[in-house]
Design goal:
Helices cover 18% and strands 40% of the residues. The chain is α+β, with helices and mostly antiparallel strands and 750 residues long. Helix 3 runs antiparallel to helix 8 and helix 7 packs antiparallel against helix 8. The chain is globular, with a radius of gyration of 28 Å. The N and C termini lie far apart (68 Å).
Length: 750
């Protein structure tokens, strides 16, 4: 049975299906109005409040909609033949999943700015700041106590009722529970209520950003930059060049003490000639208070005549308790032969990410060592900035905050990098980051009974941080490139796992049939994908759901009002989407080719580069890394114009780390390290490529890496200055003329 046939069959067999008076639309509306009036009478002026009564009203509305779906679905299943039931579960699953998820979005009230019950964690309250640390503690403790006291009460009661008393009794009891406490129907509906949902929160200010030029003043040759996701938003890396010097972070293993040393080497590079200027011993900037301190350097930046290094220090006390702190160390490098420390700043937690935009360094860390066992000392749960507790007015939290982690965001003015301009602490489940030129987004996928992703927005403008709204969407994100902000809208692509929406499976008597003797639900067998568009306040503006059943998203790239994303199972569908009307995104076309692209990069007028793998469409066996050039001049008819398979190759870090790719479309040059295997031998090469619209791809040079650095693939980077290519490993820096493998010079890091 095809999906459309399945849908037509449902419509035909339910057109005359009576709806019980008790759950008719009119009665449901009357019950909801009575519930709202009851709350208003008890709490005048608090119709948009944040208490549990408000949450129950909203969830009752969703429950009413879901009850209609449940009763209708049950009746359809009892009418359908056993074969139709089986086909419905197998081939109609994606369509039903999509409709159920869309129903969850559509059922959301327009003023849903408060949080649902703590057992589902789908809604968020308006962010508040505490008046005191004591108030903050009491709020967190109350949220935890309430959560753990009530979480067991929403387990499996509704499923037991179904087995013991039949569907009618279960639906009746679910309706009562939904009206009184809204817990029963949430468990029955599962993902239909929990997923595909985005709601507004607190008011959001307008955002603009003046982007500062971070390059060295004066005339310099053209040179490579770190491959970044968003224009004018710089990202830290382990190699940088300003067109005159090459800076490389090197980690040396000391076998004597079993620890790593961290140094940044500064090398003057002129027409392929290399001159060592200095080596910054980063460990000297770290104050070791105990021998057991563990230091991890992550990345650095060059901004005019300063160098900023970011590292994490883990300190262990006598009881093996850990204190983790993120540091920013600022060096004056006006004299490249004699760098000097200007300042060192700190914030609680492990380093997560950083960016430079509009002349400020934004640093994000994750404070995970909080405990609520005692109210004092406050340092048990209040993070610190430069060893001082962060002020109450800079702590923002939802009313029902469950402080799994606290994220600290700071802004440092690079014109005078002696102290942070602003800082914010937010207890949230956000874990990864996407940063546009005006906003920081924290997102984290929650793998609970249903898979969902929470996204929180923090705006920035010239160093001022403004926590804003949050949203929860169905499914998981493959990485930061799944998000893109454009013209005050956030576009997100997600993969929704099959088990997010389940179908009841009934036997001929209408009773629930266990699956393999252990479950009362039939799992949908295919994942689906979705595109969500959220506005400035993180409210849902538009969506596309039910895309590419059975596949998952491997890559995405957004270019103005057009988006491209790749899904994969055995072939690589490349979807193009018109995003010019955020309320009505439209799929323009899709291209199916063998293999997949992990990374997409615009490479010039109407062409886009894809880096991924070629696979056998029958067996999915990899045939090697593949370069694809897509003609996107007509988004309705995207064409793979050229492809190049790197024989014997297996993997490249650039597939999953965009900063490992050196790329400059204007220079018509890109390169990356890859791993391969042939004749029972491993090999590692760094290769450079060009592209010609008539001749296709050309590999211009291939450099064998065999100095030991190849086993730390993230240590190998390429860069260019003018007509010269520079290859940096964890051991040395070598120079070549672009397109040549004849070495000009080499210096060793020792």
């Amino acid at each position: 049975m095809k999906e459309q046939d399945f849908i037509d069959a449902i419509r035909e067999k339910t057109k005359d299906l009576p709806i019980p008076d008790s759950i008719s639309p009119d009665n449901m509306k009357t019950m909801l109005d009575e519930q709202i009036k009851k709350q208003t009478d008890k709490n005048p002026g608090e119709l948009s409040g944040t208490g549990r009564k408000r949450r129950n009203t909203r969830r009752f509305a969703a429950a009413a909609c879901l009850l209609l779906c449940i009763v209708g679905s049950f009746a359809v299943y009892t009418i359908m033949s056993p074969r139709e039931k089986e086909e419905a579960a197998e081939t109609g699953a994606a369509e039903i999943a999509t409709e159920a998820q869309e129903g969850a979005f559509d059922a959301a009230p327009e003023d849903a700015d408060s949080e649902a019950g703590q057992e589902d964690l789908v809604y968020r309250t308006k962010l508040s700041s505490p008046e005191s640390y004591d108030e903050y503690y009491d709020t967190l403790k109350a949220a935890y106590d309430s959560y753990y006291d009530n979480i067991s009460s929403v387990e499996t009661k509704i499923y037991t009722d179904m087995v013991d008393g039949g569907m009618d009794r279960a639906v009746g009891e679910a309706a009562g529970a939904a009206k009184d406490s809204a817990t029963g129907i949430a468990d029955l509906a599962g993902a239909a209520e929990d997923n595909d949902t985005a709601f507004k929160e607190s008011a959001q200010s307008e955002n603009t950003a003046d982007i500062a030029n971070a390059k060295t003043d004066g005339e310099t040759p053209d040179h490579s930059d770190t491959n970044i996701q968003e224009q004018n938003v710089d990202e830290g890396d382990i190699i940088k060049t300003d067109g005159k010097y090459i800076y490389k972070l090197v980690r040396d293993y000391n076998s004597a003490d079993g620890d790593y040393g961290n140094r940044i080497f500064i090398t003057k590079a002129e027409d392929g000639n290399l001159t060592s200027m200095s080596a910054i011993n980063l460990d000297e900037a770290v104050k070791h208070e105990e021998d057991k301190d563990y230091i991890t350097f992550h990345e650095f930046y060059i901004y005019k005549d300063i160098l900023l290094g970011l590292y994490t220090k883990n300190q262990y006390d006598a009881n093996a308790n850990t204190t983790t702190t993120t540091y920013v160390v600022v060096y004056d490098i006006q004299d490249r032969s004699n760098p000097k420390v200007k300042s060192t700043l700190s914030q609680s937690g492990s380093f997560i990410s950083s960016r430079i935009s509009d002349g400020y360094l934004y640093t994000i860390s994750n404070f995970t060592e909080a405990t609520l066992s005692e109210k004092e000392p406050y340092s048990n749960y209040i993070p610190t900035i430069n060893t001082k507790l962060i002020e109450c007015e800079n702590i923002y939290y939802p009313e029902d905050a469950l402080m799994d982690t606290t994220y600290i965001i700071t802004s440092l003015p690079l014109s005078s990098p002696s102290d942070f301009k602003d800082k914010k602490a937010i207890p949230t489940k956000g874990g990864d980051t996407y940063v546009s030129d005006s906003s920081i987004y924290l997102y984290r996928t929650l793998y609970e009974e249903v898979t969902k992703t929470e996204i929180m927005k923090i705006s920035y403008d010239k160093g001022t941080l403004t926590p804003g709204s949050s949203a929860v969407i169905a499914g998981y994100l493959y990485g930061s490139f799944a998000l893109s902000e454009y013209d005050h809208h956030l576009r997100v692509v997600a993969t929704i796992p099959a088990n997010n929406i389940s179908l009841l499976r009934l036997d001929a008597q209408g009773d629930i049939m266990p699956i393999n003797g252990s479950s009362n639900r039939t799992e949908i067998k295919e994942d689906v994908n979705a595109l969500y568009i959220l506005d400035d306040n993180m409210e849902l503006t538009g969506k596309l759901t039910g895309l590419a059943p059975g596949e998952q998203i491997y890559s995405a790239r957004f270019f103005g009002t057009t988006g491209y994303f790749v899904t994969y199972r055995n072939t690589d569908p490349l979807f193009s989407v018109d995003l010019s009307d955020p309320a009505n995104p439209v799929i323009l076309g899709q291209l199916k080719i063998p293999g997949f692209s992990n990374y997409l990069h615009f490479y010039g007028d109407n062409i886009m580069l894809g880096l991924g793998e070629e696979t056998d469409p029958e067996t999915s066996e990899s045939k090697g890394l593949k370069l694809s050039m897509f003609d996107i001049s007509s988004p309705e008819n995207v064409v793979e114009k050229d492809k190049y398979i790197i024989e014997g190759s297996r993997y490249s870090e650039a597939q999953n780390n965009h900063k490992a790719l050196m790329i400059d479309p204007e220079k018509n040059l890109f390169g990356f390290l890859f791993y391969g295997y042939n004749d029972n031998n491993d090999f590692y090469y760094y290769a450079t490529y060009t592209y010609d619209r008539k001749k296709g791809f050309s590999e211009t040079a291939r450099y064998r890496i065999n100095d030991g650095s190849e086993y730390a693939m993230d240590a190998v980077r390429g860069a260019y200055i003018g007509d010269y290519f520079y290859l940096a490993t964890n051991k040395s820096l070598s120079s070549y003329r672009i397109g040549s493998t004849e070495k000009i010079a080499q210096i060793y890091y020792n």
